[in-house]
Amino acid sequence: MRRRDFIRGLGVLALSCALIGEASAVCNKKPHKELKAVMQKPDTGTKKQEKESEPVQPKRGDLPPKYVLLALDITGSTRLVKEQNEQACIRIIRSLKPGDCLNIIFVTEATFSNPEQLLVIFRMPLNVGMGGTDLRRKQTQAINQFKKIMQEMPSERGSTSLVDGISLFSQILQEQDMPRKVLVLISDLREERRDFNIETISQKGSQILSQLKGDGLIPNLGNIEVYCLGIATTGLTPQKYQRLRNFWTGFWQLTGCRLISMDVGYNREID
After folding, report:
1. Is 63 helix (H, G, I), strand (E, B) or coil?
2. Apex 107 CA angle, 197 and 113, nearest 5
3. d(Cα 259, Cα 271) in Å, to the nearest integer?
4. Rounded distance, CA 29 to CA 228, Å?
């Protein structure tokens, strides 16, 4: 019995040593490549997706060159702010970036049927020159041409033809092949037509918009950036001004444009 127990004990001891040796080999073995990768680098897929879903705000330097149609209201209702309007135009010209194009057109009593605009389309150089001298030279050339035209402009002008004029602006902008198209309208927005004016807009602005839409007189300004500057409040009550503003906000929405601003002032930067 003792001999049998001794032999059985030796068998158990041998089995235990074998198991210990195998376990030691497993522990010393290098982990599988995929397992090692998981151990070293935790899964960041969720964080990556969250990062990609965040909206990217373009920097100024990333914006492509633009075609700027600068529409200046020179009708009788703007005579009291003539100097401010002209200075606003000059600031916009000074803000043009390399590769930008500028076209200046005037809002008159016959904006669509008898357009008045500078004959020269000013294109800013892509190479600004040493210290920006070439870019400033082109900006100054455009400013001098603009000032010359304004000096020759008649002091007394008629009423404002704005809605028809915006149809013309739309045609000009849609024909351009530049990546960005911008309409800058410097006007008090006081339309004067036979069928509607500031008074009728104040009374039934929504009906007028429906009529314009039904008559096919809402221009297409899809993907065009629109800045409205110099919306005068002179002579208007707060209620009448708000109705005027509501009318034009509705108008711009119908055109499909990207309305950037409707400002009483002139300090908005045109990127």
Report:
1. coil
2. 90
3. 14
4. 73
The pLDDT of residue 119:
58
Which residue matches tokens 């024909």?
A: 175
Taking Cα atoms as reference points, which of 196, 192, 217, 218 lies closest to residue 205? 196
What is the pLDDT at residue 167?
94
Copy the structure tokens of residue 85.
Answer: 């309007």
Domains in the chain: boundaries: 64-262
Cα–Cα distance, 209 to 265 (Å, whole number): 26
Q: Is the pLDDT of residue 178 over 50?
A: yes
Q: Tokens 């950036």 map to which residue? A: 225
Measured at the CA of 137, the angle between CA 132 and CA 140, to 5 degrees, comes to 125
Q: How far apart are CA 208 and CA 189, in angstroms?
A: 15
CA dihedral 63, 229, 192, 246 (to 10 degrees): 90
**Helices 198-214 and 238-255, packing angle to 10 deg:** 20
Closest CA to 263 of 67, 100, 88: 88
Q: Per the structure block, which two tokens stand in for 41?
A: 């680098």
Specify the pTM: 0.75
64-262 placed in CATH 3.40.50.300: no
Half-sphere exposure of 39 (CA within 13 A, CB side): 7
d(CA 97, CA 94): 9
Strand 116-117 with 122-123, pairing = unpaired
Q: How far is the C-alpha of 106 from the C-alpha of 124, rounded, in Å?
A: 21
How far apart CA 77 and CA 158 sit, in angstroms, is: 8
Instruction: Report d(CA 249, CA 259) in Å as an integer.
Output: 8
How far is residue 207's CA from residue 45's CA, in Å, rounded to a whole number? 53
